[in-house]
Amino acid sequence: MPIVDQLQALPDELGRVEHLLADSAYLSEANVDHCVASGIEPWITLGRERHHKSWRQRFKRAPKAPPDSATPMQKMAHRLKTPEGKALYALRKQVPEPVSGIIKSVMGFRQFSLRGYENVKGEWNLVTLSWNIKRMFAMQPG
Question: How many domains would you assign to the chain?
Answer without folding.
Answer: 2
